[in-house]
Amino acid sequence: MTTIPQTTLRSAAAGKRSAIIGQMSSILIFLILVLVPLAATNFVTFQITMLLVYATAILALNILTGGSGQFSLGQSAFFAIGAYTSAVLVEHGGVNYLLTLPIAAAVCFVTGFLFGLPALRLSGVYLALATFALATAMPQLLKLGYFEPWTGGVQGLVTSKPDAPLGLPISPDTWLYYLTLGFGLAIYATAANLLSSRTGRALMAIRDNEIAASAMGIDIALYKTLAFGISAAITGIAGALGAIAVQFVAPDGYTFQLSIALFLGMVVGGVGWLPGSIAGSAFIVFVPNVAESISKGLSGAVFGILILLVIFVIPRGARQIAEYLQAAIEGRRGGA
Amino acid sequence: MELLTNQILAGIATGSIYACMALSVVMIYQAIDHLNFAQGEMATFSAFVAWQLMRWGIPYWPAFILTVTISFVAGVAIERGLFRPLANASILTNVAGFIALFAIVNSVTGMTWDFTIKEFPSPFGSSQFLGSELINSHQAGMIGVTGLLLAFLYCFLGFTKVGLAMRAAVSTPESARLVGINVGWMVALGWGLASSIGAVAGMLIAPVVFLEPNMMGGILVYGFAGAVLGGLSSPAGAVLGGLLVGVFENLIGTYVPGAGNELKLPIALALIILVLRFRPDGLLGRNVVERV
Amino acid sequence: MSDILKVRELRAYYGQVQALYGIDLSLREGSVTTLLGANGAGKTTTLRSICNMVRFTGAILFDGLELSGRSTEKLVRLGIAHVPQGRGTFTRMTVEENLRLGAISRNDDRAVTGDIDRMYAHFPKLKERRIQQAGTLSGGEQQMLAVARALMLRPRLMLLDEPSFGLAPLIVRDLFGILAKINREEKVTIMVVEQNAELALELASDAYVIETGRIVMSGPAAEISNNEDIRKSYLGY
Known about the structure:
heterotrimer; A: 336 residues; mainly alpha; 14 helices; B: 292 residues; ABC transporter involved in vitamin B12 uptake, BtuC
């Protein structure tokens, strides 16, 4: 007769404990997210909306880099395309702002997919380079004389904030918040599902060892370009939501600095760890506010130092902190 | 015809700056297989240092030399301090390191010298070169200085002991160790050289585009385009690539209707993608076989 | 005659995997020693440990000097030349540059030029190809170049990892003849790691046999090559 070793029994109980705590914290966070605007001012609500917007963009990057292992320093370009698609359609096309969201997603999906095609042959640094060039070129493209009648050139476009639908008695900011929250949660759920599905496993196989994955019969080209397309689409939705919330789009709002911020958000949150997107987003939304109030231009230095801190001290970002907490709760030291 | 020659020469002039940036990028790439995204910011910082030295009363050429020396030391320091510890880390970590460097240098430059545009002197003046209508003396100066720089580099790498050691360390590091070369210091030397070359580029371009913290953003992309075009594997390729990009950019700007200033950067982007897609080894590159 | 190299209790690791389980070796100064064994037995690992290219524990003494803790490039400068598996030629550089690189850690430039001429005397084929890119040389020529490069260091000890690999038997004979000459004339102690046991045992004075990370036999080369049982079990002939 075999007896189950004490350690296994203990870890089973501890595991159950941490799972329950994990579930409870998720519910708690969810409740906070839902209830916050009811207690907060319009401005705070707006800030948290932007937090969710960037979290969604970081999530997209997580799918791309953490999921399929492809680099992108060019997410700001897709963010811009989404934002401008929405703004242009609303201002010049009279399209309902809600409709612009799926359109922005579609436009970005196609752009991302098309970019992903030549990028197939690139990996690592080369891909980082091509996306860097994309990010740097985008503001220029947006300032182009050709497009000025639509894009408003250097000045950009101003849009108006939509009211809550059906005459609901909530402020526009609150409505936009719930809209963003809804989209954010839906995207998160879809992404989580995707990553644990067969597609997700294929992506991660490609990330870990492309040649081996190809030998296993996975269509590398298809999955990699799909990953780019999906990631771009989600970033586009985030961009569109951001544009609606801010009511303004201009070329210099979507520079390489934004790509840096999103990249930082991913690294701080923990690459490939979807819940980390919120942590990363919190960093990039609040840190610059504090930094810029101390000295203009300081936020860049703070970002840079934070990135260095993370890569040298906490390489897996917020995920590492979460794992540490989980281990502490389960009574283990640093993971059994 | 004269317009064409004019544009080609002007293209070579700006191309010489791209060539310098491409050269810096390739020097580091050859040493560590990574692209230094912060190369432009480092060059801008150097140009500001030069500007500051001149504000303090130091004449142009001594300030130039001093800046090049400071940049060299800074390059070595950054390699030893930041990237040596990252040598065995993942690509993601290294890219993150470069991004961090970019952000920090850009930020420090902005905070130290603010964001207003400043004038940067040229030691060559701006009159027409030798009275010709084709290029002005600063442009001629850019070509000349870049040419001298390249000649120096060629001699250094090809004919000195240290240059030989550096080439060996970069091409076959394990064998280099086995003949007694300290590969780590050779990589640091590469960084120092790259940084100095970038400083020269920054000081040459500042009179033209005016000195401000975001001066080099676009230029770096052209530098990358040139490096990629040249194959990322040889200094000569980098220089050739940079010059070609300069000429190409100018010709497109002049002869393609509607292609104003704003399209130049996207064209550089398209160029990078096309070369990487269809001819990944560039014009002068060599094949790299990926080990399974 | 003293031992120029003493290896005691050498254990080597590739990551978590152990490759050597306590190797003991002694090389008599001026001798030619061969380390024999099958593929994967640990021959290359032993050489790499001596040059600190692999994680190891144990004592490695060169002329009584403890080597551990010294970086590869530092201990090379003590006079140890290592011709690695695959030769490690600087393929993109010329033959002459390869030779210069062999001497790059030396300070006596004039003597270096003299040594290059001596190498060309040992290896006339190399002189013919002095400005050719090393990567374009044939296998045999690259091996000669690798040996010449190692000699440019004016080493006291030369380590060679499977120099016969991929070479026709006639060329290997030539090569081993040159190694013997170098050992006699330049007084260089040589350790040759080989799978090709027959020729190696002709060249060497001492031999070790290694199997799965352990020394299983050692002694004068003549004894080992005359022992039919050993030859059949460990050396395959």
